[in-house]
Write a structure and sequence with these properties.
35% of the residues lie in helices and 31% in strands. The protein has 248 residues and is α/β, with parallel strands linked by helices.
């Protein structure tokens, strides 16, 4: 899970980061803090090319844009990320409804002890929610587990799965990297209508097919990779492509 913190007060920012990081190091070491920002512009710049799974936002940023406005912008990029507001003013809670940002939690900076408890509780809720996203077919994420690391990958980002040289492992190639995990191609091809078994050792994502070459028996994907396709699969792929387009 990737986390972003946006807090313009240096002391508060350091405190937020240290408490969340220390908790994650012990209990959820796979959590990654990808950005600790002081200004909303830094977060918006990050969002141009990346996504995070959880955002801790101060409501009073003091840079011409409040945390609620920033959350509204985040929602344009990502409608399902967890957003947790941190503020000094309880009255600001009412504004979250006005901005319609569907916040996961709203934490008031009270005493140090109560604040820490609420902060960690909200953090745990965001981690639990992230883990559950990949188990919910409606959200269209493929979840992989590699030791303590849990990663949710949007279906549309997936190019293909193939058997790995390591026994019982599957290699997944997607837009942001390559990952290996324990699994079976037979189970994977049945998980989603866009997954198609083009070869005994490979399952491709029909969403990223750009060419089917029947003469040379390969399927080219959006990343330029040419995947071999069996004669039997050649007879079925066009039907599956048409079926996928209808259901998409």
């Amino acid at each position: 899970m990737k986390v972003v913190i946006c807090e313009d007060n240096p002391q508060q920012q350091k405190m937020l980061y240290n408490r969340l990081r220390n908790y994650a190091m012990i209990n959820h070491p796979s959590v990654e803090f990808v950005l600790v920002a002081s200004h909303s512009a830094e977060v918006l710049s990050y969002l141009e090319d990346h996504k995070a799974d959880c955002y801790f936002l101060d409501i009073n940023l003091g840079d011409g844009r409040n945390g609620l406005e920033l959350a509204s912008e985040i929602r344009k990029y990502d409608p399902i990320a967890s957003i947790i507001f941190v503020t000094d003013y309880s009255e600001a809670l009412k504004l979250t409804f006005k901005y319609k940002v569907a916040a996961l939690d709203f934490i008031i900076k009270r005493t140090e002890e109560s604040f820490t408890d609420e902060l960690i509780e909200a953090f745990v809720s965001s981690i639990t929610r992230y883990e559950q996203l990949g188990q919910n077919k409606v959200t269209n994420f493929f979840q992989i587990k590699m030791g303590e690391l849990i990663k949710n990958i949007p279906y549309e980002n997936i190019y293909y799965f193939e058997t790995s040289e390591d026994f019982h492992k599957i290699r997944l190639t997607e837009k942001n990297g390559v990952f290996e995990f324990y699994g079976k191609l037979k189970e994977i091809e049945e998980m989603h209508s866009s997954f198609f078994r083009c070869h005994k050792s490979m399952v491709i994502n029909l969403q990223n097919v750009v060419e089917i070459n029947k003469k040379e028996k390969y399927v080219e994907l959006a990343n330029g990779v040419r995947c071999p396709i069996s004669i039997r699969a050649l007879r079925n792929i066009q039907h599956k492509m048409n079926e996928h387009l209808v259901n998409d």
